[in-house]
Give the backbone structure.
Amino acid sequence: MWKDFMFNNSKVKKGFSLPEVMVGMTILVLVIFASTNLIVTIIRNNTANINTMIAHGLAQEGLEAVRNMRDSNWLLNADFEGKVRNTSIWGDALPAVGNEQYYAVNLKNFDTVTNRDLIRNEDLLVNYTPWSLSLLGSTEPDTDDEIRIMKEEDIAGSGRVIFKHADFAVSDNSETNFYRYLKINRSEEDRMHVQSVVKWTENGRDRNVTLTTILTNWNQGQL
């Protein structure tokens, strides 16, 4: 009887003590906390990378818009300032020599212009340019709706996403956190220094991307 009792008692398994349970729970909490922080950091970094990529694209588009204006002067037989018959085809005038100004660059809307109209009236070619400049003033603009970028998704069911200026604010567009403006310094008669600036706020911090280029007047008129 006594031997049987000793034999059975030896098979009884001991449980965890309270200190062991507390240590195990502490380790588990630390692992979960570290994993959560890692996931949050990865998500934030991914969002930051996407925002920076979009901002670079918008800033580059601003430079390409002004370069397109300069290059198209040759096609329209315009001068460096884009003037045809004393009319600026690019919207508001460029700064005077030795001055600098801030502009919004806008993509025009061609829905009301048809190829037949262009054939019948060549003067419409002057207005049929893709971009225009809107003067903001001689001081750096604030981040307001005048320079806000809008986003339009799923164009005609294609799934594309297009970023446009606030001038295109319609019901199917949504506001973004991006603002863009151009700083144009007219250092010489036929030379200008262009900065394309995109600003946005991310996790309570103000961020910006600035791209620059120098444009000169290579236009010598039509061949």
Remarks:
- Residues 191 and 216 are 4 Å apart (CA to CA).
- The first strand starts at residue 83 and ends at 84.
- Residues 36-216 form one domain.
- Confidence is low (pLDDT under 50) at residues 116-120.
